[in-house]
Amino acid sequence: MSDMYDRLVDLLVTRFEVDRAEIKPGITFEDLEMDSLFLVELLLVVQSDLGVKLDEDSASPRDTIERAAELIAEQVNEAAAAGAS
Amino acid sequence: MARAIAVTGLGLVTPAGIGVDATYERVWSGSPTATRDPDLAGLPVDISCKVPEFDPGKHVGKRSNLTMDRFVQLAITAAVEAVADAGLDPATWDGARVGVVVGCGLGGVSTWEMQHRAMLQAGPDKVSALLIPMLVPNMVAGHLAMRLGATGPNFVTATACASGATAIGAAMSLLREDQCDIVLAGGAEAGVSPLIVTGFAQMGALSRRLDDPAAASRPFDAGRDGFVIGEGASILVLERESDAHARGARVRAKVAGYGASADAHHMTAPDPQGRGARKALLAALADAGVGPDDVDHVNAHGTSTPLNDVAEASMLREVCGGATVTSTKGVVGHALGAAGAIEAGLTTLTVQHALVPPTANLDSQDPAVELDVVAKAARAQRVGVAVSNSFGFGGQNAVLVFTA
After folding, report:
1. How far apart are CA B357 and CA B374, in angstroms?
2. Identity of the residue in B66, B122, B125 whose CB atom sits nearest the CB atom of A16
3. Which InterPro entries would you find in this protein's record (chain B) (predicted)?
4. Domain B1-390 has CATH 3.20.20.370
5. Which residues of chain A does B122 touch, with a Cβ-Cβ cutoff of 8 Å?
6. Which of B21, B54, B103, B404 could form a disulfide with B163 if both were Cys (CB 3.0 to 4.6 A apart)?
C-alpha cells in the first residue's frame, strides 16, 4: 500500500479510536461507523498535518480507505506540482 | 392528586459515585467529596467535586470522547441507568411518545476552551469540525434521543443553577397535557474547566478553604465562605401515575408539584427577603395540592454561599419552619445546571426510604439559620411531602414537591 494509505491508517488508529485489525484497503468509512462529520474532521487533520488544502468532498463515507488515500495523494501531488512551477 | 407524576426510574452520576447505589451510600453517609483538583492547579481556586473514575469508553461507548463533551457522556450514563431502573426497554417502547427534557446551564465548556486554545496557538486549521456539535447545550437531549430512540418532544432548559428542576417541571407539563407517555427528565453539567472555575472565583462565589477542601462546602454553617463547583447528571423516568400502575411499575416517589418564579432583583444576588423563592415554593405546594404545614422535609438549594443560605433559610422558616432541612451540596458540591436534577433524584430517594441525608460539614450552624438542619448522620423520619428548592443566577427559581 501507499505511504498515504499507511498515514491514513495511523490517523484512524491514533486519533479516531479505530482498531487497526478492522482496517483493510477495501473497507469503507461507513463500515467503520464513520459518518460525514467524522470524514470532515479526518480531512481537517490530514490537511493540517500535511499543510495542504484539501477539497471538502475529497472523500465520502462510502469510499474505501484505499480510495480516499488515492484521492488525497492526488491532491497533495497537484499541490506539490503547483508549488514547484 | 391525580396530577401527580410517578418517578419510575432514576439514574445518577455524581461526585459521590456512578450509579444510584454508589451515590446513595456516600450522600447518606455525609462524606464530602471536594478535593484539590490537579486540572485546576495554579488557579485562584482549585477545589472541585468531580465524578470519580468515569470512563467514557466503558460507560458511554467507543469514540464517545471524539463526539461528545463530558456533560453529554454523564447524561447518557445516567439515562441508560434510569431507563433500566424503570424496567423499560427502548427496543420495544413507542418512541414517539417518549420525550426528553434536560437542564444544562453551560454546555460543552471544556471543549470550547480547548478548541479556542488550539485556534489561538496553532490557527483556525486546528479547530475541530466537531466543535459546534460538542459544545451546544441542546445536544445532550439530542444524544439521549438518538441513544434511546425517543422521538417525542426534546429540549434543553437553561435557568442556571435551577436548570435541572426547570426541566422536571417542563416534563410534568408534557405528561399532564398528554403530549408524552414517558419523559426522561433531569440535568447534566460538566463545568469544572479552568475558565469557568476562575470566572466563579472572580465573582467571589467559591469557597477559598484551599487548605481544607473536604470542609469547603458547608451549607448553613457559620464558617461557610462560598460554594464548591461540582458536576454530574441525573435523569428521572417520569410517567403518569395511572400509566405506571397499569404496567405494574415500581414507583420510587411522586413529583406532585412544580412552581417557578423570577426575582427581578439582581443578576446574581438573591432577593434578601426571598420573595421570588417564596412565590415559587407556594406555587409548587398549591400545584401539589398540599399546604405549607404538610411539608415534612426540604432538600434546600443550600449552596454554602453566605447570601444564599441565610436568604433561603429565612424564607423557609417563614413558610414551613417545622420541616427538617438538608443540603446535599455539602457532599457533592454544586453541579450548576445539573444540581436541581441531582437533588430531585436525592429527594426521590429521601421520600422512598423515609431517611434524610445529613448536611456535611455542619459543625456550627449559623445562628441566622433558624431551622432544624439535619447534620452528622442520616435521620429516619416520616417524609410524606418533601420540597426540593433550586435557585439560579438571573433570579430564576424552580421548586419541586415530592410525595410518597
Report:
1. 7
2. B66
3. Beta-ketoacyl_synthase, Ketoacyl_synth_AS, Ketoacyl_synth_C, Ketoacyl_synth_N, PKS_Beta-ketoAc_synthase_dom, Thiolase-like
4. no
5. 48
6. B103
